[in-house]
Amino acid sequence: AQKVTQAQTEISVVEKEDVTLDCVYETRDTTYYLFWYKQPPSGELVFLIRRNSFDEQNEISGRYSWNFQKSTSSFNFTITASQVVDSAVYFCALRGGTSYGKLTFGQGTILTVHP
Amino acid sequence: GAGVSQTPSNKVTEKGKYVELRCDPISGHTALYWYRQSLGQGPEFLIYFQGTGAADDSGLPNDRFFAVRPEGSVSTLKIQRTERGDSAVYLCASSLAQQGTNEQFFGPGTRLTVL
After folding, report:
1. DSSP, res B104
2. Under a CB-based contact definition with an 8 Å cutoff, are residues A46 and B104 in contact?
3. What is the nearest CA distance from A22 to chain B, expressed in angstroms?
């Protein structure tokens, strides 16, 4: 069985602060894929990043960075110098190597960035 | 190009009625997924199609739910004898194939309200 836990239900920051969203996962698959999606108030899920279980390199994309640590089964997401437009619900998701495309999502973290 | 489209965007129905929700995937995407998102929760997997066939329907909650994809493109999710607990946003996603390396692109969803 797959499970994704996002312990932070809501986070509130002031613009320009850095913020980290936590994600912990469980799977018995040796090969798996991790994802982050953003869901702005408009409602449509927007793909942010995919990580393969065999690639533990951290990644940076502009103000976004991701820290993947297999040893702690975590895939955390950091936004540097947050902006009001970053306000959204962020979901971490897992796809097991034997799950034929099925994504298991966490509960989501509501991020509010205040001006 | 056009993204995933879903119709209707909103559907209000009465308990016991039958509803159909439609999904138009991105052209050329062979894999299609349905998820259900309740308020304050992450999306939950319902069913996945590879081509015309349902490769995994393990997420369908009961036999009132059924989905088809007769020509390998458009899909329809059908709910019989709707119940108030069926109220949720129904999301459709598509990808190039079912392999985990292909991200799923989500549509805007259909908000179903059962009175």
Report:
1. P
2. no
3. 15
Rounded (10°) CA dihedral A11, A13, A16, A21: -10
Q: Distance, in angstroms, between B81 CA and closest chain A CA? A: 26
Q: Along the 115 residues of chain A, how does pLDDT read in single tens digits?
A: 899 999 999 999 999 999 999 999 999 998 999 999 999 988 899 999 888 888 888 888 899 999 999 999 999 999 999 999 999 999 999 998 777 678 999 999 999 999 9
Q: Do B42 and A107 touch (CB under 8 A)?
A: yes
**In the prediction, which pLDDT does B99 show?**
58
Kindly determine whether residue B59 and residue A101, on different chains, have CB atoms separated by under 8 Å.
no
Burial of B93 (0-12, 13-18, 19+ CB in 10 A): buried
Q: What is the pLDDT of residue B98?
A: 58
How distant is the Cα of B15 from the closest Cα of chain A, in angstroms?
Answer: 25
Q: Do B48 and A100 touch (CB under 8 A)?
A: yes
- Torsion angles phi and psi, residue A84, rounded to 5: -55, -35
